[in-house]
Write a structure and sequence with these properties.
Chain lengths: 303, 333
């Protein structure tokens, strides 16, 4: 009697947890399905190659795609070397419980939790006004060349935001390099830096790549940090210099869905843009998940 | 003869290697210091964020010019906005008499966060229990990546979905007066928080030593009894940490609430009414504000407030995870 009761209890309990998992999966499914169904009709060659027309109710999103790509390329150039070297320090040089290593780890953890809008304020206060304004004072007296929102400031703000992502995945990759490799290199007379450069880093390339991909996925989707540091509602030209403003997919979505004079007319373009951004981030994240699961299997084998 | 050459060669070699070593050592030293310098960048970034957000917020405390309009009293205490009215709390920086009470914004932030947590915690924790305790491997292989994908959805897309699709659906089901409200924003926010709580909870459930479960099963407990009486209590601090981290994310998230909440700074505990959060206020108003005006500095004050609050939340969450790890690895030995 009590046995069968506990059995029922068991089924109910595990059934409820299964249900919760299914609800989460279903919600993701509904979101993706809704965006796909309403968005795929808009996707066409012209949509990818033309600029917005007639108050964003027609035309395409080429400037936004161009801006997003330029933005994440600049961001990647800034964040990957810095993130990789930080991870190298944490895993290869620092003693695990040295004060600096612990401080760096704490800072990385906290950096990951700073709200994205605060990054926007920081980018405006530090990069745009302090650094950009400083450059203007020194080299362009009386002019505003760099002390204004620009793609380089937005990219650097995003680089600070994505730094923890790169550090964490690179460190995981470094951890997966078997110690025997390092010892073999030392035994052959290799110095520490030579070992890192020729042995450890080449073996961590997939992990570093994962970090970079995740960072790009994150950076491509963030809007709050670039609102005040460089993104523009609409620009008749593409950014060609580092201190130009730019259009961006996420910001374009925000602008179209909240500031459009006629939401119904904008909807097809809006859905198309959301679909493009969603596909972009999904592909990036899937790539990262795949590479990472490969690394983890390799890691398990190495043990 | 043979002997001489070897001695010569040896000496030569020694000298060479010494020279290389010395040069190598200097180079290695520089490289190590350079990498160390680089690693401090994360610390520098945190400090710079604090300094530069704080710097722009500071005039609220120091500049008499700014304080005429925006000061701590204005922020946190009810004010008499006209001589014959009773004290009130209103956020309305652009008006004849600018009103800077942050209380409506804090209430709005709390309302959205509460809904998000009520929505996300049960789902995320239950899903974590399912994947770590009950799920067959094949199902696990599906659920985990799906939730990772959910984490990868840009918040502006979640905001868009809540604004265009979910708001109308919820309004038709619950008959809200306002289409965009705390429930709508909170649920969308919950979707962003679920992956965080799920990942940390699942990790800490997995960190529970296998022996605990084996001992429980050996004593005749069923799997769900083991899950709820052994694994869950052992992982509880970790799950709690995940909830704390999710809470930090919910408080600071911007785009979702900016798009889905209606952005009306109303003082009420009715969850069917529109809200305006701290983060959304900064995002919505900073674009139009005059550089250096009291309003500008007030917005940075909101940012500093957000930064400090999330810093404390995240720090305590991370500390909890550390402690849990130490405890569990200690128990293993």
């Amino acid at each position: 009697m009590s046995r069968s009761f506990s059995k029922i209890q068991g089924y109910t309990f595990s059934g409820l947890t299964l249900l919760a998992s299914l609800v989460i999966v279903a919600m993701l499914g509904v979101i993706v399905w809704n965006i796909f169904i309403n968005g795929y009709g808009t996707l066409s060659w012209g949509f990818f190659t033309r600029a917005p027309e007639q108050g964003m109710t027609a035309g395409g999103i080429f400037p936004a795609i161009f801006g997003t790509v330029a933005l994440v390329i600049l961001m990647t150039i800034a964040v990957v070397p810095l993130g990789v070297l930080t991870a190298v320090y944490l895993h290869e040089y620092a003693k695990p419980d040295s004060v600096i290593a612990r401080l760096v780890r704490a800072a990385v953890g906290n950096l990951a939790g700073v709200p994205s809008i605060v990054f926007g304020l920081f980018g405006l206060g530090f990069f745009v006004h302090f650094v950009g304004g400083g450059i203007d004072k020194l080299f362009y007296p009386g002019e505003v060349a760099w002390g204004q929102p620009a793609i380089i400031w937005a990219a650097l703000t995003l680089a600070v935001l994505t730094l923890p992502v790169v550090i964490v995945s690179t460190e995981e990759a470094l951890r997966a390099v078997p110690n025997e490799y390092r010892e073999a290199s030392y035994a052959l007379g290799g110095s520490k830096w030579l070992t890192i450069r020729k042995i450890v880093l080449p073996h961590s390339v997939p992990g570093i790549l994962t970090g970079a991909i995740l960072a790009v996925g994150r950076g491509a989707g963030e809007v709050a940090p670039i609102m005040f540091t460089g993104a523009a509602y609409f620009l008749p030209y593409l950014p060609s210099k580092l201190n130009d403003q730019f259009m961006e997919l996420g910001y374009h979505i925000f602008v179209m869905s909240t500031q459009s004079p006629d939401v119904e007319k904008t909807k097809p373009i809006l859905y198309g843009t959301v679909l493009v951004l969603l596909i972009l981030t999904f592909i990036l994240n899937l790539l990262a998940i795949l590479i990472r699961s490969k690394i983890r299997t390799a890691q398990r084998r190495a043990r | 003869m043979k002997n001489r050459t070897t001695v010569f060669q040896k000496a030569e070699k020694q000298e060479l290697s010494l020279r290389y070593k010395r040069r190598g050592r200097v180079k290695e030293w520089f490289i190590e210091k350079f990498i160390l310098l680089n690693a401090t960048l994360a610390i520098v970034a945190i400090i710079l964020i604090f300094v530069f957000v704080g710097k722009e917020a500071l005039p609220v405390f120091t500049s008499p010019e700014v304080q005429k309009e925006a000061n701590l009293g204005e922020f946190f205490l009810p004010q008499k906005y006209s001589p014959d009215s009773s004290p009130n709390i209103i956020w309305q920086p652009v008006s004849q008499r600018p009103k800077y009470s942050v209380i409506p914004l804090i209430i709005g932030t709390l309302k959205a966060t509460i809904v998000a947590m009520l929505f996300a915690i049960p789902l995320a924790v239950a899903a974590a229990i399912f994947t770590s305790e009950f799920a067959p491997n094949r199902l696990k292989e599906i659920i985990k990546p799906v939730i990772e994908l959910l984490a990868g959805i840009p918040s502006v897309v979640l905001g868009f979905f809540a604004l265009i699709v979910m708001a109308s659906f919820l309004q038709s089901v619950f008959d809200f007066t306002f289409r965009l409200n705390a429930i709508n924003a909170g649920i969308a926010l919950g979707l962003a928080v679920i992956p965080i709580i799920y990942t940390v909870s699942e990790d800490s459930l997995n960190a529970v030593p296998k022996q605990y479960r084996e001992a429980s099963l050996a004593l005749g407990a069923t799997r769900w009894q083991t899950a709820i009486k052994v694994a869950l209590p052992a992982a509880l601090p970790g799950i709690f940490a995940g909830i704390v981290l999710g809470f930090g994310r919910a408080v600071g998230e911007t785009m979702i609430v900016l798009m889905a909440s209606g952005n009306a700074a109303i003082v009420s505990w009715n969850f069917g009414e529109s809200i305006r959060t701290l983060s959304a206020t900064i995002a919505a108003e900073l674009g139009e504000v005059v550089f250096g005006s009291p309003h500008y500095h007030a917005l940075f004050f909101l940012g500093a407030l957000l930064f400090v609050v999330t810093f404390i939340i995240n720090f305590s969450g991370a500390l909890y995870v550390e402690k849990l790890k130490a405890k569990l690895t200690g128990a293993k030995r």
